[in-house]
């Protein structure tokens, strides 16, 4: 049996802690805060104009990240066993890893959509027509595509506010993507150490010494 003073026991306890806390706590708190921020900002953007597409209001990315954080909190409630000896622990850790990867992809897509929309808005020429803001990329082209933002009485305030929200979405989703990527990396390293999944071989004398202590 291992005593409390055994150095191996201390190493095993430190292997699944970070800054004195269980491993997923810090990542789950960050993901929850960032996920709520992205979700709230997405719904605020949807309230600016009813014609904004779902891809332009990435509240869906924030909801996914919030779900990831909840799975991380569930992981904290499960008693730790080395090498995932319990089925529940392995299942929750696998779900957390996969959902973090999904959150990473969703946040990267949100950044791409927001960046594309922001670049378009920097080239728009907008006019207010019948309580809607109609914008064109090229006013000289009569066949050019017209972007219509409904429920907008003032194009100037709409474009400035939407540009600000798009910039915030890019920053928040980029930070959230980095947190999800770091969570995936730490989960992988925690399971496979230095990216090696081979069998660990221990000296025969060490195992005999442990048997004698028992």
Automatic annotation (TrEMBL):
Superkingdom per UniProt? Eukaryota
Q: InterPro entries, from UniProt?
A: CD20-like (IPR007237), Sarcospan (IPR030429)
Supply the Pfam families for this chain. Answer: CD20
Annotated coiled-coil positions are: none
Asked if the record carries the keyword GTP-binding, the reply is no
Keywords of this entry: Membrane, Transmembrane, Transmembrane helix
Q: How does it sit in the membrane?
A: Multi-pass membrane protein
Task: State the compartments where it is located.
Answer: Membrane
Q: Mind telling me what this protein is named?
A: Sarcospan
* Organism (species): Aptenodytes forsteri
